[in-house]
Design goal:
Blueprint (H helix, E strand, L loop, with lengths): L1 E6 L7 H15 L3 E6 L29 H10 L2 E7 L7 H15 L9 E8 L4 H14 L3 E2 L7 E3 L10 H23 L11
Parallel strand pairs: 1-2, 1-3, 3-4, 4-5, 4-6
Length: about 200
């Protein structure tokens, strides 16, 4: 079982990354292999809307000059995908949305490659906008036929200066519980990955 957390913040070791590390620590304690991916260290260009990804046999985006495919392959290999973003004017960062837009198109145009992977979003802001951004990211999980775990509250937290999010104990605890639920869900799905569909009664 493998989990990745993708940090959409341009800050390294900022508040978003701290929350994602809480998730990864909880998942690792459950025996799940984990990896943090920082988009601050990658270049992912926006989707061009060319539709080429639906015509190629190698399930690749037409843009090969950036780091998209490196990150996308990690997403395909993972059983659990967590994405985290700070709030920029009521939205996820451009870095995060560039990745998710392209990953969503390539996945959906090639047989729903992300289908039934587990995961969910984590969002942090100084004061407001978390719910808009949380919903924005949640929509991406749902349209890609993925399975999202819940928690005791939405996976949001407050923080501006680096490390300030640690003062939001409810936010940190909510994110920790979310990760614990992912680990629990992974155990359930791992024991019976395909649902048993009853035969149609004629």
């Amino acid at each position: 079982m493998k989990a990745i957390a993708i940090c959409g913040s341009p800050r390294v070791e900022g508040n978003t990354e701290l929350l994602l590390k809480v998730c990864l620590e909880r998942l690792a304690s459950a025996g799940i292999d984990t990896e943090l991916v920082r988009l601050a260290e990658k270049e992912v260009l926006p989707c061009k809307g060319c539709g080429t990804c639906g015509k190629r046999l190698d399930r690749r985006c037409s843009t090969d000059s950036d780091d998209f495919h490196e990150v996308f392959e990690k997403m395909l290999e993972a059983d659990i995908i967590i994405v985290g973003s700070p709030v920029y004017f009521g939205s996820a960062t451009p870095q995060m949305m560039a990745l998710l837009d392209r990953a969503g198109y390539v996945a959906r145009k090639n047989g729903n490659l992300l289908s039934r992977k587990l995961g969910g979003p984590v969002v942090v802001a100084r004061r407001a906008g978390q719910n808009f951004t949380y919903a924005q990211l949640l929509f991406w999980f749902m349209i890609n036929d993925m399975i999202v775990a819940g928690s005791t509250y939405w996976n949001i937290a407050f923080g501006a200066a680096r490390g300030e999010v640690n003062d939001d104990r409810e936010g940190v605890d909510t994110v920790g519980r979310f990760a614990e639920n992912l680990a629990w869900l992974a155990g359930k799905v791992g024991s019976n990955p395909e649902p048993q569909v009853e035969a149609e009664v004629k």
